[in-house]
Amino acid sequence: MSIVSRVRAAARNVLRRADVERELDDELRSYVELLTAEKIAEGMAPADARRAALVDVGGVEQTKEEVRDVRAGARIDALRADVRHTLRGLRRSPGFTIAVVCTLAIGIGLNSAMFTVVYSVLARSLPIRDADRVVNIYQRLRSTGARGREVRGSTSLLSYDEFLAYARVPAFAAAAAYHPQGLTVTGAENRVVPSELVSCGYFRALRTSIVLGRSFSEDECSHTGAGPVAILSHAAWQARYAGDSAIVGTVIHVNGLPLTVVGVAEPGFNGISFERAAMWVPITMQPTLEHGRDSILVHDNASWLTVAARLALGATLEQARTQAAVTGRGLDAADPGRRTIPVVTPGAYFNFPEVSAEGALPMALILLLGFTIVAMACANVMNLLLARGLARRREIAIRLAIGASRRQLVQQLLIESGALALAGALVGMVFVVALPPIVRALSPSTEIQLNVSPDLRIVGYVFLLAIATTLLVGLTPALQATSVDLTSAFKGAATFGKRQHRPSRIRSTIVAVQMAGSAMLLVTAGLFLRAAMRATVTHPGYATHNVVAFSTNAGPLGYDAGRAGVVYRALMDRIRQTPGVVDVAFTARLPLLVRNSGSVRVIRGNDSATYNVDVASVTASYFHTMDMRIVRGTTFDIVAAMGDERPVVVSGSLASKLWPGNDALGRRLESGGHWFRVVGIASDAASSSLSRPAETTIYFVATSPLEKQIVVRTSNSPTALIAAVPVWARAMDPALLVQSERFEDRISLVLLPARLVAGSTASLGALALVLAVIGIAGVVSFGVGQRRREVAVRLAVGATAQQVVALMMRQGGTPIVAGIVVGIALAGVLARLVRGLLFGVSPLDPIAYAVMTGVLALSGVLATYVPSRRAARVDPATTLRDEG
Amino acid sequence: MSIRPADQAKLLQGTLDLLILKALGLGELHGLGVSRRIEQMTQGTFQVKPGSLFPALHRMEEAGWLTSTWGESEANRRAKFYRLTAAGRKQFEIETSEWNRVAGAIAVALGTT
Predict the structure, then answer these.
(1) Which end of chain A is more exposed for a tag (fewer CB within 10 A), N or C?
(2) What is the ipTM of this complex?
(3) Domain shared by A442 and A498, yes or no
(4) Is the pLDDT of residue A495 over 60?
């Protein structure tokens, strides 16, 4: 049988249905006429002949139906009829349809939105041409070798020398190194421009075109300071220079240095860092831009560059990995003791190894929440479908009786759930579409480029989710609804055979699942709420209120330590004299958000041991300013008495780690090639993370004020001070920019994830609980209806109303208790996994569990009590007479 | 002798197809014509009712074995005429040899008792 002709026929049958039908009609009419004519020729009277002919044909409509059945595409036709029938049915019960579509829209929509966020953060390819051929190169260092490695940002980043080594890997056609950095542009107005220091092949490797002027030349990366040039983003060119093409060749002052603008990048390109870049400068300018104070460029053992490479034509990721491993071994050979594992991954924003490891948990949590929501929505819809199936028992029984096959009915019921799921998915797309503006509104600055707009993959995901939902939600109710015992269904009475107990059992299971889901969500919410509260309530080891830090652009402006010292001392004096100021100090940074680590070595007997510790660089008054205590010894005040050895203060936890069981005061330790003597032991503090309240921290003396912040604690709100300090600074040098940061804001930022998780799990948990309560009430009232007779008998033989109510409540009780127990167990497991996000709150925090269990149990009792009360109102006489 | 509807339902699909192909082998016919030709060829053994005839004709046409055109019947009435295609002729040969093989085998089987 020719497939071509079948397909052609099917297309004709489906698409030109009216023509095909008319022709069939004509053909059969002509047949009857011919037969009539034949009979007339045989001598019959015309009227008789026609009647006889029709009898012979034996039903024109039936014949047509049989022809339709054999036609190609008959199944498509049947499907179309089923869909039409389904849509008619759904239109007839708008309440049910709206309820189901909305529930599924919330479930699918929220899940898809969460998927979009995770996908966009972890897996979306970079916003450049042929992004699928671009990889990122990182290194995991098992051991850093004899020399300590300097880390700026992430340990897996590369040094410039390492970048040059990997760039020679044959599988890479081109490579780009970049380092995001804010550069100060001075002129008519001073501002910090988010920029990237880049290798000179950056634009070529990313296939970004330069729309005006030229790209960087290789000469500009030939040696330190070789390229005093800059390229602007199209957006910056438009916004800052009014799109004037005379910009090419213009000299601008960046960190006090004259750089020539040589080009403008194509519109829409903002670099490939998470933060939007507005300007690019050759990487060889790094030491020059830092006025020679910080030459990380030539530091061949530093982590500071993100590297992207474009695969050569025909090269595979596997080849690139193998070849990069060879390069890694070469680096190890040149540096004894070093163990390098190169990591080559498809290009994306957040793919460096440690982020993938640390970021995986929150992302998994988000996805888990997403799937819990879909499961909750599905459970609820399944419940509704089961109820609808029960209500349609008669209809389904009739259709089975007149010859519909069970397969046909199941297919049709699945079409119904498919239509509902698809509608839910379409409405749910609102969440996905609304996501970009929401993220834009929520993100702390517009400089972050997180693209959460929907793409084909996301649409595909939503579609797959809709199909999965259809099967999950529809299959059980469809099988349930079509396994009808015809006899009892037609009797229509509330007499249920053994099989008909099943719907209520399934519904009980669903209720248990809903209870478990809401229990899990609510307990999680409780834990995170406790974490957020605890972190703000308890003392993390330092003052959290009325603390503000001021930083300036003195360094980028080219101030030397002497000039900066004069300016800073003047500023600090004025601040100290301001009423309400408790104390003021220098620090390299405020606690939290960033971890600044280094290593210290101590000698114990003949051995030396090296420890990785949190590093702070402060002045003597820092401890008082931050409301920390020196528990033993002193702060740096008596520097002179120490002779050659520099003084250092260690946290109590570090003291007991380095010299367990011994007094740490006066002990010596080595760091960065210098020897230090411990002069004081400070109280423990959460210096880098609220989850680690007793960080092992070492406090060095801040010598130069450059790269430091002025930190101030006031007795009441520092608002006036925040306004005043920039004015004082400008009075000293018009180019001086002062930025202030309230410590409260920093803590809020740290707590944001916990608060977000607490808020979202709480609201979703509450939603799930409402759905569960409705489900429970439904199951119990169904049971009450079913057992009216039994209740009537019990009441007739003397049971009290309370006993009957208790009996009815018990049948709702089992799924509730089971659900709560399972949900709490799941929450316990989940909480252990995300312990790191709980700021030290125990994953088994009794208060969170007790409160939430109470809420759940109370809701369960209410949900069973209200419908159970109906049982007590059963009138034995009437019931037994009517149903007996 | 005619076949009762219940038996007709059991009429092997292949048999009906074969008979239709054979009937049309001699020239184009309309639906009633096919029915009459089969009746005549089988000396009245098979009376094909429209309920089996039309589904078969349509199915075979969709398979590409037959084509149809509207034309005038002998009694000046409009009718749809069916004609064999090249594929149909080939199918006829295949089915004929298949039938002969089956019929021969069954005849042998029945003869061995």
Answers:
(1) C
(2) 0.85
(3) yes
(4) no
Same domain, A702 and A652: yes
Q: Are A296 and A156 members of one domain?
A: yes
Last residue of a domain, one of A679, A714, A744: A744
Of A744, A766, A798, the residue at which a domain comes to its end is: A744
Phi-psi map region of A660: left, alpha, beta (phi>0 left; psi -120 to 50 alpha): beta
Domain check: are A287 and A378 in the same one?
Answer: no
The minimal CB distance from A34 to the residues B30, B49, B87 is found for B30
Nearest to A802 by CA among A873, A876, A872: A872
Within 13 A of A242's CA, how many CA atoms are on the CB side? 2
Asked if residue A666 belongs to a domain, the reply is yes
The answer to whether the CB atoms of B58 and A37 lie below 8 A apart is no
Q: Are A114 and A371 in contact (CB under 8 A)?
A: no
Could you tell me if A776 and A816 are in contact, meaning their C-beta atoms sit under 8 angstroms apart? Answer: yes
- ∠ CA A58-A59-A65, nearest 5°, is 125
CA–CA gap between residue A871 and residue A854 (Å, rounded): 26
Question: Are A257 and A381 within one domain?
Answer: no
Domain assignment present for A115? no
CA distance A619 to A586: 5
Query: What confidence tens digit (pLDDT) does each residue in A264-309 have?
Result: 999 989 988 877 899 999 999 998 888 777 788 888 788 899 999 9
Domain count, chain A: 4
CB A373 within 8 A of CB A764: yes
Q: What is the mean pLDDT of chain A?
A: 83
Q: How much is the average pLDDT of A769-797? A: 80
As a whole number of angstroms, the distance between CA A113 and CA A429 comes to 8
What residue has token string 């780690």? Answer: A657
Residue of B nearest to A62 (CA): B51
The range of the structural domain enclosing residue A674 comes to: 547-744
**Sequence-ordered list of residues with C-beta below 8 angstroms from that of A485, at least 6 positions apart, any chain:** A497, A499, A500
Residue ranges of E strands in A113-232 = 134-144, 150-151, 172-186, 191-198, 210-213, 229-232
- How much of chain A, in percent, has pLDDT values that exceed 90? 19
**Chain A residues with CB-CB distance to B73 below 8 A:** 30, 34
Among the partner-chain residues A10, A27, A58, the one whose CB lies closest to the CB of B51 is: A58
In what helix (H) or strand (E) does residue A91 lie, and over which residues does it extend? helix A74-92
Nearest to B77 among A9, A33, A67 (CB): A33
Look at residue A53 and tell me whether its pLDDT is greater than 90.
no
pLDDT at position A497, please?
A: 43
| Token pair belonging to A499 | 């099989």
Mutation to test the B interface, candidates A29, A61, A66, A68, most B Cβ within 10 Å: A66
Question: What would the two tokens of residue A172 be?
Answer: 């890479």
Structure tokens at A779: 């199951």
Residue A389, pLDDT above cutoff 70: yes
3-state secondary structure of A81: helix
Residues A740 and A769 both lie in one domain: no
Is residue A392 domain-resident? yes
Query: Cβ separation of A71 and B64 shorter than 8 Å?
Result: no
In terms of domains, do A140 and A189 share one? yes
Q: Answer whether A208's CB lies under 8 Å from A243's CB.
A: no
Highest mean pLDDT among A56-60, A122-126, B20-24: B20-24
CA dist., res. A659 & res. A362, Å (int): 36
Q: Please report whether residue A463 resides in a domain.
A: yes
Residue A140 and residue A288 in one domain: yes
Closest CA to A778 of A842, A850, A690, A863: A863
Rounded average pLDDT over A49-59? 83
CB contact under 8 A, A34 and B75: yes
In total, chain A counts a number of residues equal to 884
Question: What is chain A's Cα-based Rg?
Answer: 38
Which residue out of A67, A69, A76 would a mutagenesis test of the B interface target, given it has the greatest number of B Cβ atoms within 10 Å? A67
Whether A518 has a pLDDT exceeding 80, the answer reads yes
